[in-house]
C-alpha cells in the first residue's frame, strides 16, 4: 500500500516518536488538528503500516544492562541452511537487541546489551558454541552519545 505523507502526518510521527503516550487530544493539539482529523490520520498511518505498535524505552542502567557491545561477525558460510540456523540462534538470545546483515569486510553486526563483561562473555560463549563463525570482533561502547534517535520525518 502506498501512502503519501503530508506535513500533518509528519508532525504526528515526530510527536509520537518523542512521546507515544500522548492522549489523542494532546496529540491533536500539538500538531494543530481537530481530534477527529487526528484520529483518522492515526488510523490511516496504522493501516498503511507506518505506525507499527507502541513501545517505551527503558533506562539500561536502572535495569543493570550498562554494557553495550557492537559485535562484527565474518563467516565462510553463506548457505541458506547455515543462515537460517544462525538467525535462529542469534534471535534466541534476548540480549542481542539489534541484528544486521551488512556489506563490507564483515557479514553481520549485532548490538548486545549486558550487565557487565562477565555477562557479555557468557553471551559470546553461547553464540560461538552453537555457530561456526570465522571471525568475531567486539567493540565496547564507552558512551552512548546518540542512542535510539527519532527517525527524521
Question: What can you see in these coordinates?
Answer:
By secondary structure, the protein is α+β, with helices and mostly antiparallel strands. Helices cover 39% and strands 18% of the residues. It has 5 helices and 4 strands. The chain has helices at 7-18, 24-31, 35-47, 80-91, 117-130; strands at residues 67-74, 96-101, 108-114, 135-140. Strands 2-3-1-4 form a 4-stranded antiparallel beta sheet. It is elongated, with a radius of gyration of 20 Å. The two termini are 19 Å apart. The model has no long low-confidence stretch (mean pLDDT 95). Keywords: DNA-binding, Transcription, Transcription regulation. This is Lrp/AsnC family transcriptional regulator. InterPro entries: ArsR-like_HTH (IPR011991), AsnC-type_HTH_dom (IPR000485), Dimeric_a/b-barrel (IPR011008), Tscrpt_reg_AsnC-like (IPR019888), Tscrpt_reg_AsnC/Lrp_C (IPR019887), Tscrpt_reg_HTH_AsnC-type_CS (IPR019885), WH-like_DNA-bd_sf (IPR036388), WH_DNA-bd_sf (IPR036390).
The helix-strand sequence is HHHEHEEHE
Secondary-structure-derived class? alpha+beta
Low-confidence runs (pLDDT<50, min 5 residues)? none
Give the CA-CA distance, first to last residue.
19 Å
Number of helices: 5
Let me know the number of strands. 4
Q: Indicate the radius of gyration in whole angstroms.
A: 20 Å
Largest sheet: 4 strands, antiparallel
Strand content: 15-25%
Choose one word for the global shape: elongated
- Helical content stands at 25-40%
What is the mean pLDDT?
95
Strand line-up of the largest beta sheet: 2-3-1-4
